[in-house]
Amino acid sequence: MTQNIQQYDYIIAGSGAAGLSLLCYLLEEPVLQQKRILLLDREKKQVNDKTWCFWQVEKGPFESCLKHQWQHLHFYSEGFSSLLDISPYRYKMLESASFYSFCLNKASTAENVTVVNDEILKIDPDGKVYGRQAVYQGEYVFNSAKFKIPKQQYYHYLVQHFKGYFIKTSEDAFNPETPTLMDFRVEQHDDCRFVYVLPVSKREALVEYTGFSPEPLTQEQYDDELTYYIKHYLQLSQYDITHTEYGVIPMTNAPFKTHESARVINIGTAGGATKASTGYTFSFIQRQCAAIARNLAAGKVPVFRQAASKNKYRLYDSTFLRVLSEKKHPAWSVFEDMFSKLPAATILKFLNEDSSLLEDLQVMHSVDKSTFVRAAMKEVYHTFKESLP
Ligand SMILES: Cc1cc2nc3c(=O)[nH]c(=O)nc-3n(C[C@H](O)[C@H](O)[C@H](O)COP(=O)(O)OP(=O)(O)OC[C@H]3O[C@@H](n4cnc5c(N)ncnc54)[C@H](O)[C@@H]3O)c2cc1C
Q: Quick check: CB of 213 below 6 Å from ligand 1?
C-alpha cells in the first residue's frame, strides 16, 4: 500500500519547551515566513505539567507569561543561611500552561504553521516522520520527542528527581518577595537532598522536594518529606494542595547527539540542553533554539554548535557529577561553600555557563580543593582513555 506523504519544510517533532521555543524563534525571522512548518505532538499541550524556573538579566521572549520573578533568594544549610541578592539576575517562574498557550496562540495566527496531534512512531534519517495517522516529510526535522540516553562506560548517570506541592493557605503565610532556592537543612540520607519554596503570593507557594541521586524515590517518600518540611520548617498545619508536580531530569555527562543525520536535528533534552550538573534546561533550550533559527535564516546548517570556550563546562559538570556519585564529600557543603563565600550572581553566572576564567577560579577556590582536584584529574584521565583508539 502506498501512503500519502505530507510535505513540509520544517517539522517540529515534539511541542514541549524546545519545540515551541524553536517555533517562536522561527516566526521571528522574516526570511522564514514562507516556510511550511508542522508542529507535531501526541498531546494538545493544555495541561500545566511543568513549572520552569531560570535566571536572566535581560527580558526574555516569554516575559509576558511569567508567573512571578524575584531578586532575592534564601539559602539554608546547617552552617550558613542568608537572603541573597542575585541582581543583576532575576529568578523567573514560568508555568508551562501559560507558555504552551502563548506559543500555540502564535502558531494559530501564523498561516505557515500546521498543528497536528499524532503519536510519532519513528523518524527516518531522510526526514520522514512516521505518525500513527500519517507520514510527514520535512527538509529538516527538529526532534525533542524521541531520544534514548546513551549508556556508555566512564560516564556518570544520576537524575534530578523532585515532587512539588502547590499549596494554598487561608491566612498569610509567605513573603512573595523572598523565595528559597535551596534548603539543605533537611535529612540528607547520605545523598543530596534539598527543598525549594517559591511563594507567588502571601497565601500560595510551590514547595518542592528535590534529590540528586542514581534513582528517584517512591511517591510516598516524597509525600512524607514534603509533609514534614511544611509542618516543621514552614510551620503550617492547615493548607490545601491545589496541584502537584513530579519530574525526573537526567544528570549525565554522556554526550547527546546534536543531530541524527543532516536532516534530523535534536533539540531540548534530546539535543543535550540539560545541564548535567544541575538539571536546569530551560535557559539552554533558549540559546540552542535561537541559534538554530538564526542559522536557518542565514542559510547555514541548523545545528547548535557550542562555542569552544564553553567546552570547559563539560569538565566542570563531569567533576561535580563524580563528586556527587562517589559521595566522598557531602553535596550540601559544596553549595554551602559557594553561597557563603561568593556573591550569588557569580554562582548563577557560572551555572549559566557565562562566567569568565577568573570567575571560574573564584568558584573553584570556594569549594574543597582536594576533593575537586582529585575528581577533575580522574575525569581528565577517563576522557584521555576514552579518546584512545
Ligand atoms: C516537572 C518538570 C519540571 C522542570 N522544571 C525545570 C525548571 O524549573 N528549570 C529548568 O531549566 N528545567 C526544568 N525541567 C527540565 C526541562 O526544562 C524540561 O524537561 C523541558 O520540558 C525539556 O524540554 P523538551 O522540549 O526537551 O522536552 P518536553 O518539554 O518534554 O517536550 C517533548 C515533547 O515531545 C512530545 N512527545 C514525546 N514523545 C512523543 C511521541 N512519541 N509522539 C509525539 N509526541 C511526543 C511530548 O508530548 C512533549 O510535548 C523540568 C522538567 C520537568 C519534567
A: no
Q: What's the domain count of the chain?
A: 3
12 pocket-lining for ligand 1 (C-beta < 6 Å): no
- Does 224 contact ligand 1 (Cβ within 6 A)? no
Paired residues of 8 in beta bridges: 138
Residue nearest to atom 36 of ligand 1 (CA): 145
Same-domain check for residues 247 and 320: no
Ligand 1 close to Cβ of residue 282 (< 6 A): yes
Cβ of 19 below 6 Å from ligand 1: yes
The grid coordinates of residue 69 equal 520573578
127 and 47, same domain (yes or no): yes
Q: Is residue 73 part of a domain?
A: no
Residue corresponding to grid cell 534530523: 264
pLDDT of residue 389: 67
Mean pLDDT by groups of 10 residues along the chain of 389 residues: 83 98 98 98 96 97 97 97 98 98 98 98 98 97 93 91 98 98 97 97 98 97 98 97 97 94 98 96 97 97 87 95 94 97 98 97 96 94 76
> For residue 324, what is the DSSP state?
H
Q: Do 135 and 265 reside in the same domain of the chain?
A: yes
- Position 324 in a domain: yes
- The model's pTM is 0.96
Q: From CA 180, how far away is CA 195, in angstroms rounded?
A: 8
Q: Are residues 14 and 142 both part of a single domain?
A: yes
CA 353 to chain CA centroid, Å, is 13
Give the span between the Cα atoms of 264 and 11, in whole angstroms. Answer: 9
Do 264 and 137 fall into the same domain?
A: yes
Residue 237 belongs to what domain range?
157-252
